[in-house]
Each structure stands twice: as C-alpha cells, then as structure tokens.
C-alpha cells in the first residue's frame, strides 16, 4: 500500500529509487576521566583504531578514483603510530579512551594547521578519524559513506553543504531530509545539481534502507511504494527562442553549473556564489588561484552577463580559512560583507582576482556584495570595487533595513539583487534552516512581496535595475508576480530555468501586474498562490 509523506519539493522531475539512509553523526561524549585500568583502555583503543582502519580499507577496495584515494588516506590516519602514541599518553594522564583519542587528534590537527598548505587540509580528516574511533569505543553506529554505485534516494535528518557537495547526482538521484526548507542549502544545492528533493519532510526518518520511494517534488511529497505514473505533472517546456517577459538568468557555484545554465538557455548568470568554491579550503586562496577559477567560469558565459558575488562567508556557510570566532547567533553575526571589517584584504584580493579574470576574458562581469544592512556599507563596497577598476557594481538586498534605504544608494550603484532567502529569514525573524518555521519563509508571503514592491519602486526612482536571485525566482508562477511587481530579471538554478522561462513566455505584462496586485493584497501565502493560479491558468 502506498504511503504519502508531505514536505517541500525541490525541482521538477520525479524519481523512483530505493532509500539509502545516512546515519546521524555520532556524539562526542564530554571529556571523561578514566575509570578502567590503563591497560584496558589501551586495548580498547587499539581494537577500535584497527576496526576503523580495516573498515576504511575495505571501503577503499570497493571504491574508485578520488573516493578510493580519500578512504585510503583516512585509513592510514587511523593506523598512524604517532597518533596512537599520543592518545596512549593521554590515557596515562588519566583520560578515558574516547577523550584520549579526541585530545590527541586535536593537538595533531593544530600542528597540521600551523604547517599550512596541503598539511592543513588534512586536519579535518583527523577529526573524522577521532570521531570514528570514538563511535566504535562508545558503541555508536556510523555510516556516512555515500553509495558509490547504483541509484538511490538519500534520506537524512539534514545535509551540510560539505555533504551535499560530495554527492554524485548519477548515483544519488533523489534526496529527502527531515529538516530544511525551500531556501536551505540542501535545497539550493539539490536544485543546482538537478536532484529531485523533498525537504522538511517530518516523517523522513521513518524510511528505511531498501524502501522504494517516489520523490515527487512538484507534488511536494514522497510516496512510499509509489510509481512514476503517480508523479505530479510539471509544465511543458517552451521553445528557447520564445522571448520571456523579463530575462531569466542562472545561479551557479562553479564552472559546471555555468555550463548547465547555458544548456538550459539562461540569459547569463545572475548569481555566482563564490564561497561555495572554498568551503573546504584551509588556507585563503591566492589572487592567482581565484583568477584561474573565475576565468574558467567567465569563459563559459561568452558575451552573456555574469553577476559574481563576493564571499558570503559565515553563518551556515563557514569558511575555515577565515578563522572567524564562534558566535552565539551566526546568522546575525559577522557574515557576508561584514567580514570586510576585520579582514578587508580578503575581499580586496577577491575583487582584484575578479577584475583580472574579467580583463583576461573580456566577459561582461558585474560584482555584488552580500549581507548589506546600511547604505554606508554599500558605499564602501562600491568604492573598493571601483578602486580595483570594476565598473558594474551592485549589492544584494537581504536585510529589511537596506530594503527601506534603497534611495540612499543613488549615485553609488548600478543594480540591486534581492536575496529572498535571507530577506525572508530576517523579515520574519525565522531561521531559514529551521524545518518548523518553513511557513514563515514561504516566498509567497504577502509581506515579503510588499517589501519587494517597495524596493522596486525606490530603485526605479533612482534608475537602477532590480533582480531577484533567491529561491523565489525558481517558482514559475511567482516569477510572473515578480515581473508584475517591477523586478527587471530573475535568476534561478539551471534545472529551474526552463519552467520559469515557460511561465514568463506565456504571460503578458498586464496579466503580470494583475497577478502582482492579487498576491500583494492577499492575506496569506496560500491565498496569494490560489488567486494567481486561477488568474494565470
Ligand atoms: C538569498 O539569500 O536569497 C541568496 C540568494 O543568497 P544565499 O542563498 O546564498 O544566502
Ligand atoms: Mg543570502
């Protein structure tokens, strides 16, 4: 019998495949003094280390390429005599074996970090090894490996950007998470990779390995034992040459994504999230290293415009090499452009690399800064970008404060791009990663749409363009509403482009304006959507 589990769909193509459950990370117990004898603790530690080493070797033997290399390197760490010796010294100092291995790994990781370069990149591996040994010592199951062959739907409580960036979309064809909403990073990356996903699926963890599920993103649901014929139908795709009401650009994180945007007939790139390139970097990328990557992306675009965003580090996208202090409320802390306060050189170097790559390729490059709250920050960013010789300069509108200060940007900027994911998060005081708050974050919220209207009206007065690059732009019906409100372009992940183009090709400006009026006047997102749906269908 089929069973339906509601959630929030991401993408437009449904898939059917068996479940692969990703286990939760084991818990590192608090530091504990030894209760057993030194000998007993050492025997347990050696056995656990051996177990981890052999497990990783086995996995390496059945993997290929880069995955196999990583597993071999990890297994070597588990057998490292120096690491075990340091852990035994900690046992001698009175700690139990889980605490001892964690302390030893920490001090080794610090040594690797200070050695810098390739050594520093191995520090994170040590954490993983210590946690694996701890899991074994404390009897916790942990299998975070992604499948290396077959076709699966990955089921997890949630995925970090680092987890999702490891996914091979040929093998992981679907994702179901218990947490997350339409604007969480799991959604963004799945949309980017063309993986069908249902996030915020409260019952996700009731699924077991081997269950066969239909991931039905258009229907916002998972159907256990469902068939592809049960999937909700998406819109037919319009001819790429048919003009759209406003241009549809693509959101990217790397060169491959840029190819995807072109394949889907995006008019260019409206958001290049550069921080995604450096999530695992232990040391700051040099100007030359950055320039090389940016050049490769710019070349893909030819003469199409590309908006590149400076590092949006901090909060849910921590960049290790910035060594930012831990914060109580990272979403309200030092993130985005705010890192230019303590570390201006990082942004200056990035802008320099962007300018060099733009000159080398002749691409139509525009730059923007994330997480701006007050006009003075926008002015400072524009001055820095001009100093390196960049000409087309904008900012993201992601905080309510700057949404109501657009007129103060006159004379400094050429465009603004609305990040509806963060704008909704800050407008509704609702964490975008929190699965119980997804209703607040619905991009159809009338208060969000009215805020966008205010931004568009003020931007029109000072004669600057407005784009939307948050996930609101990936909803075809909502894209029409945005065009009616006065937005000049939208930008969405490549797989969403055809659906958005289709809707924008079908509507005219009067219809769009009518749709915008209905949506802004509505008293709830559901009412807004229902009214617009019946107007446009
Ligand atoms: C946004 O906040 O809407 C946005 C596009 O930025 P990100 O999702 O990368 O925070
Ligand atoms: Mg944002």
TrEMBL record:
Q: Which Gene3D superfamilies match?
A: Phosphoenolpyruvate-binding domains (3.20.20.60), Phosphohistidine domain (3.50.30.10), PtsI, HPr-binding domain (1.10.274.10)
Alphabetical UniProt keywords = Kinase, Magnesium, Metal-binding, Transferase
Q: Which residues form the Phosphotransferase system enzyme I N-terminal domain?
A: 6-122
Indicate whether Lyase appears among the record's keywords.
no
List, for all copies, the residue spans of the domain called PEP-utilising enzyme mobile.
153-216
One term of GO molecular function: kinase activity
Record-linked Pfam families: PEP-utilisers_N, PEP-utilizers, PEP-utilizers_C
- Name all PEP-utilising enzyme C-terminal domain ranges: 246-507
Q: Which family does it belong to?
A: Belongs to the PEP-utilizing enzyme family.
Tell me the protein's name. Phosphoenolpyruvate-protein phosphotransferase
């Amino acid at each position: 019998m089929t069973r339906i589990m509601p959630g929030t769909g991401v993408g437009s193509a449904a898939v059917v495949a068996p479940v692969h459950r990703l286990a939760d990370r084991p818990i590192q117990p608090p530091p504990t003094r030894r209760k057993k004898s030194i000998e007993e603790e050492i025997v347990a530690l050696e056995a656990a280390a051996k177990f981890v080493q052999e497990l990783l070797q086995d996995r390496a033997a059945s993997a290929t390429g880069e995955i196999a290399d990583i597993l071999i390197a990890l297994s070597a760490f588990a057998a490292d005599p120096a690491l075990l010796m340091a852990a035994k010294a900690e046992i001698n100092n009175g700690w139990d074996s889980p605490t001892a291995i964690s302390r030893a790994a920490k001090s080794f990781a610090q040594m690797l970090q200070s050695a810098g370069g390739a050594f520093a990149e191995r520090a994170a591996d040590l954490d993983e090894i210590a946690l694996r040994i701890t899991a074994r010592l404390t009897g916790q199951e942990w299998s975070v490996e992604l499948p290396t062959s077959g076709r699966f739907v990955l089921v997890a409580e949630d995925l970090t950007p680092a987890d999702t960036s490891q996914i091979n979309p040929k093998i992981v064809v679907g994702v179901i998470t218990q947490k997350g909403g339409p604007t969480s990073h799991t959604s963004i990356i799945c949309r980017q990779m063309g993986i069908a996903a249902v996030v915020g699926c409260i019952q996700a963890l009731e699924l077991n390995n081997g269950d066969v599920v239909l991931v039905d993103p258009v229907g916002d649901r998972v159907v256990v034992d469902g068939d592809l014929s049960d999937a909700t139908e998406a819109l037919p795709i319009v001819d790429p040459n048919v003009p759209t009401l406003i241009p549809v650009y693509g959101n990217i994180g790397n060169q491959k994504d840029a190819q995807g945007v072109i394949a889907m007939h995006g008019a260019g790139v409206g958001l290049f999230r550069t921080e995604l390139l450096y999530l695992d970097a232990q040391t700051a990328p040099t100007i030359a290293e950055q320039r090389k990557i940016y050049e490769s992306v710019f070349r893909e675009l030819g003469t199409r415009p590309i908006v590149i965003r400076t590092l949006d580090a901090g909060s849910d996208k921590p960049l290790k090499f910035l060594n930012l202090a831990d914060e109580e409320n990272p979403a309200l802390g030092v993130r985005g452009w705010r890192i230019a306060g303590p570390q201006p050189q990082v942004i200056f170097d990035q802008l320099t690399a962007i300018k060099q790559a733009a000159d080398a390729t002749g691409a139509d490059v525009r730059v923007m800064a994330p997480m701006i709250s007050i006009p003075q920050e926008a002015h400072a960013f524009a001055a820095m970008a001009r100093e390196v010789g960049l000409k087309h300069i904008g900012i993201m509108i992601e905080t309510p404060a700057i949404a109501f200060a657009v007129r103060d940007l006159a004379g400094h900027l050429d465009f603004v791009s609305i990040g509806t994911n963060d704008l909704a998060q800050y407008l509704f005081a609702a964490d975008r990663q929190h699965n119980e708050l997804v209703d607040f974050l619905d991009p159809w919220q009338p208060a969000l749409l009215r805020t966008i209207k205010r931004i568009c009206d003020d931007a029109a007065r000072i004669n600057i363009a407005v784009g939307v690059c948050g996930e609101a732009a990936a909803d075809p019906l909502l894209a029409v509403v945005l065009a009616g409100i006065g937005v000049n372009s939208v930008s969405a992940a490549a797989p969403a482009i055809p659906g958005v183009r289709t809707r924008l090709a079908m509507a005219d400006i009067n219809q769009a304006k009518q749709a915008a009026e209905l949506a802004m006047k509505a008293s709830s997102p559901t009412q807004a959507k229902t009214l617009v749906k019946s107007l446009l269908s």
